[in-house]
Amino acid sequence: MRRMLVLIALTGSAALALQAQDGPYRPVKEIQIGGEGGWDYLSVDGGAKRLYVSHATKADVVDLSTDTVVGEITDTPGIHGAIAATPGRVFTSNGRGNNASIVDAKTLQTISKVETGGNPDFILFEPKEKAVYTFNGRGGSSTVIDASSGKVVATISLGGKPEAAVVDVAAGRVYVNLEDKNSVAVIDLATHAVVANWPIAPGEEASGLAIDTKTHRLFIGASNKLMLMMDSTNGKIVAQVPIGSGVDSTWFDPGTGYAFSSCGDGTTTIAHEDSPTKLTVVQTLKTGPGARTMALDPATHRLYLPTAQYGPPPANAAPGRGRATMVPNTMKILVYGLNGK
């Protein structure tokens, strides 16, 4: 009887191990960040093999060849994101400063700052015109900055609160989620004008956005636990799959056909674009507390998600109103790879 119980236990353990490994993505390693304060967007600079991590009032710079922090970009109050732009320059969106920093990529020193609309949040580099777009949450606008000169070339009224954005150079368009309007605004690159505004129903309050430029499909992470697939030529919703709660980031990998939505509940949904009209969930990746933002390195197919340890809510918080507090020096980046690579 004991031998049978041992066999059953071993069989159960094996089943749990297989279940934990179910799906294409596996944990690879953790990158220790430490420090205090929260985080927002991450971005990969494939050419420089760097990961930029917005963190409180600075951006941590991670060398992806060694997976270690090698520097930081400072004086970025309320930073939301940092991106590589023209060679040798990095731009940051500083929410509380109502501006964008232009930074020397080698020294990580600030060259200058550019005034934007209120609370610049998501930031995007458009390679055709070599322009940086900041999407200003409180301003309900986008500020377009010439990446070479650092001059503002346009301010685009969006008519709503922008979140994530993507660019399709061949189509000459930038697409941006308007969170409070439940829609996607379409910006013409040549005229810097909004030329369409498409509802995302049945989605609500979208944040994450990604694109497959080959099939002309947008992937939208919506707060009502849906990933939507939209035709980027006409705004038609063609497919949807369920995701977790608290979504904030969505990516698409053209090399694998996988779309990813990371959520604050500690899950990342991985779906496959089977066809231009079919989306299938292939994995619900267990990540960590608050791991709602993410970056994808399309060259290695690795995912990078920030998380930390959290303590209980403050003792004097009203029932159901208190938020868990982050334990100082516990922030880290979870790294996941395709088949554990």
Overall description:
Mean pLDDT is 92; it is low at 1-21. The strands form eight sheets. Strands 1-30-27-26 form a four-stranded antiparallel beta sheet, with no helix packed on it. The chain has 341 residues and is mainly beta. The longest helix is centred in the N-terminal third of the chain and has 19 residues, at 2-20. It is built from one helix and 30 strands.
Identify the notable features of this structure and list them briefly:
mainly beta, disordered N terminus, four-stranded antiparallel β-sheet, 1 helix, single chain
Give the SSE map.
Elements: H1 2-20, E1 25-32, E2 39-45, E3 50-55, E4 58-63, E5 68-73, E6 79-84, E7 89-94, E8 99-104, E9 110-115, E10 120-126, E11 131-136, E12 141-146, E13 152-157, E14 162-168, E15 173-178, E16 183-188, E17 193-199, E18 206-212, E19 217-222, E20 226-231, E21 237-242, E22 247-253, E23 258-263, E24 267-275, E25 278-286, E26 295-297, E27 302-307, E28 310-311, E29 325-326, E30 332-338
Antiparallel strand pairs: 1-30, 2-3, 3-4, 4-5, 6-7, 7-8, 8-9, 10-11, 11-12, 12-13, 14-15, 15-16, 16-17, 18-19, 19-20, 20-21, 22-23, 23-24, 24-25, 26-27, 27-30, 28-29
